[in-house]
Amino acid sequence: MAEYSSILLENAVDSLSKLPGVGKKTALRLALHLLNEDPLLTEQLADSLIKMRHNIMLCERCHNISDTKICSICSNPRRDENTLCVVADMRDVLAIEHTATYNGLYHVLGGVISPIEGISPHDLSIEALVERTRNEDIREIILALPATIEGDTTNFYIYRQLKDFKGKVSVIAKGIAVGETLEYVDEITLGRSIQNRTSFN
């Protein structure tokens, strides 16, 4: 383990290195950068992180992250409220939004069914999804979950729960490689997968 001349620097490096994809060397470089920058930059960074952690919430309608009770997508009158895209988490919302090919609403599950990781259907917002189909004028549900065994299992479970839904249930086209999560798919491929979706059966 590297020895630091300052316990304060060591603590900062330890904290930064706990972030995903950040090793000790990168953490040290980041810490030294912040140390050498204008103190206001560090204070603004710390303040923004604290405010994000304490004030961000989940949209009461779609369960995406939001600054308000209803997120900006759900409250946008220009969105197509008849189409609902079901995704695993907010990173998938960002990925699909970047394609600029989808103008409907979303429903964020908060993950996918994974017995190995102890995630059951009751840990996800599937019941809230079914409730939305009863209370909103939804005519199509697009299942846009990862092309993995867990994603397929979740797709099938949701499809079974939507047995009383009178609209169309579709799944994004398989232009996405098996095992790949949406956030790492390029925008063109993801956009075409949304546009070329097929009925789920």
Topology:
Elements: H1 7-16, H2 24-36, H3 39-55, E1 57-58, E2 65-66, E3 80-87, H4 90-99, E4 104-108, H5 126-135, E5 140-143, H6 149-161, E6 168-171, H7 187-195, E7 198-199
Parallel strand pairs: 3-4, 3-5, 5-6
Antiparallel strand pairs: 1-2, 6-7
Helix pairs in contact: 1-2, 4-7
Q: Please give the order of strands in the largest beta sheet.
A: 4-3-5-6-7
Shape descriptor reads: elongated
- CATH architecture of the largest domain, by name, is 3-Layer(aba) Sandwich
Helix content: 40-55%
Model regions low in confidence, pLDDT < 50 over at least 5 residues: none
Question: How many separate domains?
Answer: 2
Query: How many helical elements?
Result: 7
How is the CATH topology of the largest domain named? Answer: Dna Topoisomerase Vi A Subunit, Chain: A, domain 2
Key words describing this protein structure:
Dna Topoisomerase Vi A Subunit, Chain: A, domain 2, two-stranded antiparallel sheet, alpha/beta, 201 residues, five-stranded mixed sheet, Helicase, Ruva Protein, domain 3, single chain
Description:
- The chain is an alpha/beta fold and 201 residues long.
- The protein folds into 2 domains: 7-55, RecR Domain 1 (Helicase, Ruva Protein, domain 3, Orthogonal Bundle), CATH 1.10.8; 75-199, Dna Topoisomerase Vi A Subunit, Chain: A, domain 2, CATH 3.40.1360.10.
- Helices cover 41% and strands 13% of the residues.
- The chain has helices at residues 7-16, 24-36, 39-55, 90-99, 126-135, 149-161, 187-195; strands at residues 57-58, 65-66, 80-87, 104-108, 140-143, 168-171, 198-199.
- The strands form 2 sheets. Strands 4-3-5-6-7 form a 5-stranded mixed beta sheet. The protein has a two-stranded antiparallel sheet with strand order 1-2.
- A hairpin with a 6-residue loop joins strand 1 (57-58) and strand 2.
- The longest helix is centred in the first third of the chain and has 17 residues, at 39-55.
- The radius of gyration is 21 Å and the shape is elongated.
- The N and C termini lie far apart (55 Å).
